[in-house]
Amino acid sequence: MIPRTLTETLLRRADQYPVVTLTGPRQSGKTTLVRSAFPDHAYASLEDPELRSYATTDPRSFLGQFQGPVILDEVQRVPDLFSYIQILADEEARPGRFILSGSQNFLLLRSISQSLAGRTAVLHLMPFSLAELRQRAPFPLEKIGRELPQPGESAGEGLLDTLFRGFYPRIHDRGLEPEVWLADYVRTYVERDVREILNVTDLEAFGRFLRLCAGRSGQLLNLASLANDCGISHATARRWLSILEASFLIILLRPHHKNFGKRLIKSPKLYFLDTGLLCYLLRIRSPEELRFHASRGPIFESFVVSDLTKISLHEGREPDLYFWRDSTGHEVDILIDQGATLVPVEVKSGETVTPDYFTGLAFFRDLTGANDNPAALVYAGDRTFEQHGVKVYSWQVL
Q1: What is the C-alpha separation between 228 and 205, in angstroms, rounded?
Q2: CATH code where residue 35 lies
Q3: Whether residue 208 is found in the same domain as residue 96
Q4: What domain range includes position 165?
């Protein structure tokens, strides 16, 4: 088993709260993580039809059979359980008594807000980060733009292979062909989760919507255009998009609210959180095809946004990531909001750093009057260095 960065945070929260809830996309490794982190806990998966029937018809008796702490997997399958867990947690607020996990974040968090607000810690497990795949510690988010990592040996797959395979654990654990596994993953997601959560009857339209979103990864979200191209209403497109976000398939990177005297773009940017899934939806068939594909830049940018998001979530924090663009086209790909400091990050898929890579960063620093503040450039090359007062990071640093 590849160690997960979230383990330490998960154990710490279990020492503080009577209930800990772990959510995330399907096949991100949640069950493996909770069972390895809490080997002495009893375990029950509510995917099991018999256990689910027992928990549904007699929830009090179902929970009463566990004399000690227990892991309840796919707990959103029995929403009524949350009220009984609340009662037991209030009667005896023993830390780590219930470890809950589930994939349908939309349903799970709705049940938590109704019954377990204030009683549970909520953590999110994403597919592997690059650092986890390389079995090393991630570069701390608070050091980006401020420090350069110690030089180390490059290890693992090259960039194109990494982007093409993506980061879902099962592909790596079992050496599976990404295209085959991801086809089954999308089919399962569409045919099961979408039916259950959205009650979508036109699955073909939803599949088309998913691929249209993939074609817009890294772009400003134009919901009206997306709905029109898919042949659905604006309201339907908005609802479907919210489910993709709640399912951790996409992230909407919001524009930063501070305008620095400029008119700002107010639409979010859409990114997929797994590059392998993105390549599959774009019908990219091999790493070599990716090398010359028109979407190579957006795919690389999706990788950087995704990895920075994982660094935050796996430390138990919500990611404070934004982008900045004014009405004249000046843009910074990512802004890391560190409270008193905004760290601009430019992302470039080229392997050679050229002077124009620094244009957006220089404009932003001049505009904010903070030319000495930290700034970063992440690119597809292998060297890490400093240039023009900007920390330049190889993709392998993340």
Answers
A1: 12
A2: 3.40.50.300
A3: no
A4: 130-397
Task: Tell whether 1 is covered by a domain.
Answer: no
- 11-56 pLDDT tens trace: 999 999 999 999 999 899 999 999 999 999 999 999 999 999 999 9
pLDDT in tens, 302-313: 999 999 999 999
Nearest CA to 274 among 395, 350, 165? Answer: 165
Residue 261 has pLDDT above 60, yes or no: no
CB 376 within 8 A of CB 282: no
Contacts of 121 (CB under 8 A, 6+ apart): 13, 14, 16, 17, 19, 20, 21, 316
The pLDDT > 70 percentage for the chain reads 93
Same structural domain for residues 196 and 278?
Answer: yes
Residues 147 and 274 in one domain: yes
265 and 387 co-located in one domain: yes
- Distant-in-sequence contacts of 86-93, Cβ < 8 A, 24+ apart: 86/115, 86/116, 86/119, 88/63, 89/18, 89/19, 89/116, 89/119, 90/119, 92/18, 93/18, 93/119
Distance CA 252, CA 306 (A): 11
Where does the chain show beta strands of DSSP type E?
19-23, 42-45, 70-73, 98-102, 120-124, 250-253, 269-272, 321-325, 331-337, 342-348, 376-379, 385-387, 390-394
Task: Say yes or no: 42 and 164 in one domain.
Answer: no
C-alpha atoms less than 13 angstroms from C-alpha of 114 in its C-beta half-sphere: 13
Domain endpoint, select from 82, 104, 124: 124
* Same structural domain, 119 and 179: no
Taking the whole predicted model, whether its pTM rises above 0.90 is answered as yes
Residue written as tokens 């929403």? 79
Measured CA to CA, the distance from residue 105 to residue 10 in angstroms comes to 17
Query: How far apart (Å, rounded) are the C-alpha atoms in residues 381 and 352?
Result: 6
Question: How far apart, in whole angstroms, are the C-alpha atoms of residue 23 and residue 247?
Answer: 10
